[in-house]
Amino acid sequence: MYTNMKTYLLTLALSTAGLVSFAQANISPAKKQSKTIAVTGATIHVGNGLVIENGTLLFGNGKIISVIADGQVPQDDVMRINASGKHIYPGFIAVTTNLGLTEIEAVKATLDFSEIGDYNSHIRSIVAYNADSKVPATLRSNGILLAQTTPQGGIISGSSSLVQLDAWNWEDAAIKIDDAMHMSWPTTPRFRGFARSQTSAETLAERTQATINQLTSFFAEAKAYAEMGKPEVINTRFEAMKPVFTGKEKLFIAADKQKDIVAAVNFAKKFSITPVITGADEAYLTIPFLKENNITVVVKQPHALPDNNDDDVNMPYKNAAVLANAGLNVVLSIDGYWQQRNLPFMAGTVTAWGLDKEKALSTITLNAAKAMGADQTTGSIEAGKDATFFISAGDALDMKTNKVEQAFIQGRAINLDNLHKQLDKKFSDKYAAEKK
Amino acid sequence: MKKTLLAIALVFSATTLFAQQTTYPVNGSFDTRPGMFAFTNATIVVNSSQTLPNATLLVKGQFIQAVGSGLSVPKGYVIIDLKGKFIYPSLIDAFSSYGLPETTVQPRGSRQSVFISTKKGAYGWNEAIRPETYVKNIFSADSKKADELRKAGFGSVNVISRDGIARGISAAVTLNESTDNNLFLKDQTAANYSFNKGTSANDYPTSLMGSIALLRQTYYDSQWYGRQKDEYNISLEEFAKQQTIPQFFEADGWANILRADKIGKEFGKQYIIKSNGEEYQRINEVKATGASLIIPLTFPKAYDVEDPAEARNITLAQMKAWEMAPANAAALEKAGIRFALTAFGLEHSRDFWTNIRLAIENGLTEKQALQSVTEIPAAILGISDKVGSLEKGKIANFLISSDNLFKNGNIIFENWVQGKRFIVNKIDVADLRGIYNLNIDGINPLTLKITGASGGSVAAIERTGIDSVKTTAAFTRNGDWVSISFNLKKSPEGNIRLSGYLTTSSPLLIKGEAAMPDGLSGKFSATYKEAAKETPKKEEPKTSLAMGPLIYPFGAFGNAAIPKQENVLIKNATVWTNEKEGILENADVWLENGKIKAVGKNLAAGNARIIDATGKHVTAGIIDEHSHIAGSGGINEGAQSVSAEVRIADIINSEDVNIYRQLAGGVTTSHILHGSANPIGGQSQLIKLRWGKAPEELKFAGADGFIKFALGENVKQSNFGSGARFPVTRMGVEQTFADEFTRAKEYEKTTAVKGNNVRRDLELDAIVEILKNKRFITCHSYVQSEINMLIHVADSLGFKINTFTHILEGYKVADKMKAHGIAGSTFSDWWAYKNEVAEAIPYNGKIMHNVGITTAFNSDDAEMARHLNQEAGKAVLYGNVPEEDAWKFVTLNPAKMLHIADKVGSLKAGKDADVVIWSADPLSIYAKAEKTFVDGVPYWDIDKDAQLIKSQQTEKARLIQKMLDSKTSGSSTQRPLGNAPRLYNCETLEDYSAELNESEHVH
Predict the structure, then answer these.
(1) Hey, which of B78, B186, B231, B747 has its CA 20 to 30 A from B36?
(2) What region holds the Amidohydrolase-related domain (chain B) (predicted)?
(3) Are B656 and B630 in contact (CB under 8 A)?
(4) What are the tens digits of pLDDT across the range A368-396?
């Protein structure tokens, strides 16, 4: 009986938190969900390509209990949020980002994402993830609630972890520790350099081949080591490779050029690994191969210039759409960390240039979760998964209408305030006061 | 021992003199010879327009005594019969570094800055200005190099010290072997210049625009030098002295030809310009300079394109340049441009002939070719009285060849320099090619076949019948002597060796000794039987000479015909007027003659093309207040803390593909700024994105001049640079401005009093313009303290700040900016990339706007400029700026701050027809620019773009096939390395000269 239901009207209640002049340091991670909540009347963008109009989302204990269509509302004693006319999205996931591993690009002391050395399979990002960084709060308010915090540099950079963006510390933040090993496929420069190097193209190609040989023997030895059982001497690099061979940890390989993509996939296959290809500028040139091998592609930076002068000027906008429309599992990403607040608009761009809007949404939600092997618990609004989602007044993929009013991470109603809103308020108030 | 012998040899050759006087002592007896030679029965090419058949050339000593048909040869001449052969004037190379020591750039530590000259002596402050260099003082003949050049047919060269921006005086010398004293044709041929600072240890200039500024300043300095008594300066004195002789400028490419010529015109000079062979790309502009050119014959090699994935790296521009470069000379000839050809830059001097013939195949006439290697270089060097044609009294520099010089297969036999014979290929041996009956004592008769180049170089032995045999033979000849060695394998086994000499030449008969494998010897004779049938070399399948069209710009997305201005009526759109009418639904915009004719509802426009824009949005074109596209040779001149003298106007690059890419994002006007490496940067240039037009045509006519200032981490060099240049703190930044403006005021005052006795200072001129409100400041700025500081400096020294650009903490001082009428041009949402943007917020635009500041969003980035409409959309996201106002952030507001709002920035009758048709609300992520008009010209059209991409693919496929054909027919190729796209932003530092030097070494 709907009439008996005890209702709590929380219309925009949480955004009022911004009116209290918090300092960033006072934006606390939200408390654990205590009450079961029903969000009603919203257009639910599930994340798997489906849309539920006038749906009800019921979640408790941090998990989604049910997603109901056609305006049905459960009868239990639940807290109710009226979201009619609004949109619900699964929390957006920023993949391959150095979020939390750096604060200010130009300040060396804040850079914690690139270790020295070429074969750093033992390096793990999770331990350096700074839950107190000022950046995550500026992402949450645009709907980015999860991130794959990822090390960079060298040939094998180390393991990333999936974190949620409202945490006291990194342990708290972790959703999936060591979700993927990241490496960069060795490439030969394509351009006549402006640098001092006068090395011939032939020498450069030889050097690349030598690196690939080294990499191959690293993998071969690591695999043998993994099968050894109890090695005489512990090798931490090889130890860290074990889950990669068992499939417990994914392998992400950065490769942009057509040939490099093919080479990287074939390389991984040799070790019975199905890799995820990141970067993937020229993936559109080798679609049948990628399909045949069931490769997930993380497309980098739709807002990028074409690689070559002669390329279609809009190719970077179109790339993800071309790949997804061909039936590949596509994930969208952007470079950097503070830039991640633009992630939704990348999906919008891909929509403008040829991909269905709900499928574009999947590229920053469910597809990303799948690529990391985290889709059992997150990435879409489906019963049994984490209640990690947000409510926007309008289409969240367009900056004109992206208005995140409430957001939940594992059922916790998070604070959407951030440093930027606070500074805005501080100075807007100052000028308003002076006007009076 | 070897050394001594060599020394003796040289001394000996040096003492073989003609009847002339010398100051040099001789070790031993003088060996003075008459040096009189008569070359008879030759076809003599006197010059490009006169050829004498069956004529005689008389040479006495180093001079030509007579040339003519039917000359009688006086007694005492050595007669050389050249029946069937040709005589040409030896070639002249107007551009060479022959006989000069190699110059190398000394690498130096990265934490070192060199502000003034390290050269000892009373020279100028900057080492790149070295007019005191006289080639005559440093030249010394190089016999190895001379030999190579003579073999290619050259008899004299102009020697240039290719080091520095002002390079001093070149000299013309012959390629004779003699003491240096006897080689000079002219000790001062020209004063030389370039944009390359060469070995100079000074930091300044780092950029192309810096090189230009330094050269301009040097002209003014040398004028001032003559009027002053304060300073003795060898460099300036020399510079002034050199203004009356010919002026040579080494510039690489048509764009630099135009840049050099502009400097020349400013100072009343007509440079003779050495370029790089790509003039065909903008032949009309090159011709308009009126400059004579010196052009190399360096053609790009075909690329290895077998691997399609690798071939993708090669750009259309690279492919087309490969195809069209050999037709450059023909294009210059057709355009009526006077030019000399140089062998400079060729990997091997011998490539000179291959390439000149290729140029002829591609349309260059032989007459022009000959002029360009003889008369024209002689004329521009002022040595026509001595060399360049075969006339009495001129120096005896001439070639003897087997045929027309330009014909394939022609052999240069001899190159005479100053009456001295240099043998290139032996002439005195008969043509031995043919089939001979070979009779050797004790051996059954054989047939000898001699074939090959130079009258026979390959031999084969054959016998038909029962005891048939066929083998090749080792064959060498030395004058009339011939030796042949071969092995018949049986009867006898082992090598038979013949040593013989030419007994008679008609018929050919060779006789001599034969040494048998068993040690016995006998006699042999070879008697000419018939001509050998040379297996005719397969006529090389001529690669098709048909060429693709020239396109503007020369590269991707260029057009053979630049799009034309259209009269267009755009109907039924949502029209964002940016005027008091606001956003009109179902409205029309009429473009005529490059202007907006009308905006309104239900417009009817006679013959205008109608575009149905139902459901679409129409706006004024986007204006980017802060851009660094379309530049070349660096956009920062950061070697000094003030570089107000440099001008982006000098380095506009019309070929930058980013122009096209940004048209695709609806941008029509860009303010191209100097970078932010120093507190007072260079003068900026406003351009319209007229894709395909020449650099000068991109400039926004009648716009006010601006200059870039900068504050903060970049000018302090916090994140790059040597850290040795002042200033390194925000305190020092203040004093840089205070000092500069104080000096500018004093300069203005003294100039008013003393007029032209004051040294004209291009740097201070720009500052004085600011003080007089004739030039306007756009200042790169970040944190509130420095913004406040500059406002104070401006107030106290009496100048105005027009715009703070970037201005990420503008929200903290918006009231002060408002009070001073300063505009703010910021990023929509950038932060955290430097310490000074730790408190940059995306609400900055909103706050400034709400306070009443003219607010814009800019790009500073070639990528972001492609979607400034979306950046404007973020003003809605962050701060709920009304949509109409947000849109003005990227159109009308930047127009206002650039003082061009009377021409662009809104849709209003009479304004320029810079108009964009969008597929959706331009503030939305889903909007695409479908058409972008600049002055009513549809430079971007999303449908035409698709066609262009297709036709580009077809053209590339054709060129790839042509390259594959060319490789099959034996042309050399290169690995496919692409040309990296060049992108600039505020912080880009590059060393223009170092790059030029590098690229020269790579080739």
Answers:
(1) B186
(2) 314-401, 837-933
(3) yes
(4) 999 999 999 999 999 999 999 999 999 99
